[in-house]
Fold this sequence. Notes:
Mean pLDDT: 91
Order of helices and strands: HHHHHHHHHHHHHHHHH
Radius of gyration: 23 Å
Number of helices: 17
Strand content: under 5%
Distance between the termini: 49 Å
Largest sheet: none
Structural class: mainly alpha
Shape: elongated
Amino acid sequence: MTVPVDLADGALGLYGAVGDAFAGRRLGFGRRRAAVAARFARRRGRDEEAVAATWFAALLADVGLIAIALPPDAGPQRRDLAHADAPLHGARIAAAFAGAPPAAADIVRWHREHDDGTGAPDRLRWDGIPADAAALGIVDAFLAAVEDPEQPRDALEAVFALEPESGRRFAVERLRAFREFVQAGDWDEPCAVMLPPIDDDAALRALAARIDARDGKADGRSERLAALGRRLAARLEIDANHIARLAHLLALGRAAEPVPHDDFDPFSRFARDSRNALAQRAAAIAGSVAGYATDAPHLAASAAWYEDGDAQPLAGLLGLLLAVDALNPVDAPRRLAAASGTQFAPETTRAYLTLLSDDR
């Protein structure tokens, strides 16, 4: 069974948006790149299987950056070497999707190779670079020029900006074909492709686990929060599946190259400020994908305190889950009792303390 390209409105779209965030690009860049790359593949006469593989690879092209965690003092050379491996990591992530087009992982792996052999990760050259991967490299560079925040260009300006790289980074004939494609005028239209369905819940869990693994202190956190959230939801008459999904979506707030500092006391104002920044980033990424847009307000509000007013039960529970995950259970009753009615809703606090008591 295959379904239309609106898969980008689900968990696949989150992967694309996370790649955008790590690459420092506008949320939605990967989705636009996927549509343009797929249309260019059709223009080149590729069959529908290759078009679908190109679309999939273009959406996930930057997601390999998730596996690169550098210390704050990493120098330019170390950063460049680490980033050269991003396509390798991205290829593994693409290949892990059940039902992913078989060629997609290879397109991700080699889309940053250069015609003259100076690219990454394998320094392929000339015809050794798969055509679909090389075409994606052109599309990526073209859209980066179109959306350059310092010097945005219209389409024709952007494609001509690539000309100095003809015969070096890009094959001469392939770049000429792309220029003709852009000049035809319909390069930025939506592009429907057919792909097998994706298990969105499993894909989201895997994405959250990958983000958590960037920081040893956060490894496994999303699963812990989701499991505890399900148990508390039953006591608070909250949708358990929804709170578990939100717990995994919170990990999106850590989709940035620096690993966030996480040593603050969970009840301090410093922790609140830090978590508010993470909550806002998680909300922005989720809100950029149609299937998760309604989750964004809950994520954004998860760092708020009960005393701020306008309490949202789901957001309040998320805030509690984050705080108690950092607590020693022995200290939890005293710390939570002091925060009840100020940081956390009294009924949410009572539900957790009762659960804690039952577990002893």
